[in-house]
Amino acid sequence: MAEIRLTKVEQGQTKIRNVPIAVTPEGFWCCPSPNVFQKSLKTPNPLNKPKAPLPTTQTPAHKKQTSVTEKRPASAAPKSGAVSDEKRGVSSDTPSVTTSVPAERTPRSKTESVPRKVSIEFGEPGTSDLRVILLGKQGFTVKLNVHKNILVANSSFFANKISVQQPVFPCIEIDDCEDVEICVETIGLMYCKEMKQRLIKQSVSRVLRIIKVAEQLGFQSCMQSCLEYLEAVPWVGEEEEEKVVSSVLRLQSEGIGVTPVLKRVSSDISKPHKDTFSHILELVLKSNEERGRREMKSVVLKLLRENNCLPSSSGSVDSYNEIIYGSCRSCLDSILILFKQAAEPVFSSNSTDCREPVVKQMVLEADNLSWMLEILIDRQAADEFAVMWASQQELASLHTKLPIVSRHHVSCITAKLFVGIGKGELLPSKDTRNLLLQTWLQPLINDYSWLQHGSRSFDRKVVEEGIGRTILTLPLEEQQSILLSWLGSFLKSGDNCPNLQRAFEVWWRRTFVRPYAETGSTRPLDHVTTPKVTEH
After folding, report:
1. Residues 6+ positions from 382 with CB-CB distance below 8 Å
2. CB of 192 within 8 A of CB of 198?
3. Domain named At3g05675-like ankyrin-like: which ranges (predicted)?
């Protein structure tokens, strides 16, 4: 590793800044530091800060130098720089870079803070037989003294350019070079025997820039080394992954092996995705570890919600829904068996060790059903679940025979269905809605006190609004039947019963105040003043 020593003299003090430049055994730079480019564009002194004229450091005549020339006004701040032979540490074939700037005499004005054009030269003119000039868009002009045989052997772009011009000392000029820094580094990599080692400590974003330039230059071995790097290095974040995949896909037509990189994001396995999804669902539903199961349910639910936003064929959506409904039926069958077992008279006399596994399994199956219902609601496919749940008359009849601590998790499923119907997230038929209320509203009322105080996720106002809205979707006669039955329970239990007062007021107004079915007739309570209630 050679170093270029840039000597900066300021008011009698000498500051040394070492800029590392890798040199190959062939005597050519390989990966010049980005500092060479970035530091050259920075203004040497703060604005409006005067400096006294300083002597210019002289460079011995026997040292070979290339220069960094800067076009700027006569009043610009001068500087001096020299290259130290001791710091080169390489043979005479090693390239050298020297910054040569006149001393600063007058303070810089604000109008002179515009970007300056910078010229940098690499390589030894005495040993090279080709000059490449890169004209960058940021004001850079980079001159590279290189060797035709190296460039022809590695780059189809340079091979074509060189074949059409055969002067004694040819010069190739590349206009509007988008990425001068990376282009210099990529040409330098043509001199490396172990390119992969040069890439090890590079960032993924920089390697993507290199592979883009290598593609433009037709540098096949560099592209292959970059692909090997990308196949092995971790990609951090979705944005970086997308950039890698898009860059690699662009190279498919180049005839180089991109498959190892793409295998990270695509699979050749012929096993359908639905089989994998079914396996994941089964693992989550059968887990007995509460924390792991809870966390993975949240993860799977989040990922499925992301999938819902992506376009997909109706066939794949239907197949996933079928898998979920198959698991729902299995859970329902398990809950029914467990309820029958717990409803036996002898069950309560069993020891705690015998009863606890049954109760724990009931809670698990009810939680699984509630989770899958949430998935189906997100996928707008929960109508069939409402049909299944409304038809569970046997399960509802066993509900009252179990202790409330064991059964209240089932009522959470009923509450979630009512909330979904009230929000319009599922649209079961009128008969299904009526049957759902007839079958499960009273069990929910029986468990309401426990749900309010024993379930952290239970939102009383949301549930009551969902129940009321569900009732109000039915024909008026059925609304009356259900609400009068609720009124009897509410007058007995008070706060331990759902408060459906808003739904009751809407029903009252529909029945007594402004019946839509009768026109031109006067009802007994037409002139009774009632509070105005917004229908929900």
Report:
1. 373, 376, 417, 420, 425, 426
2. yes
3. 276-514
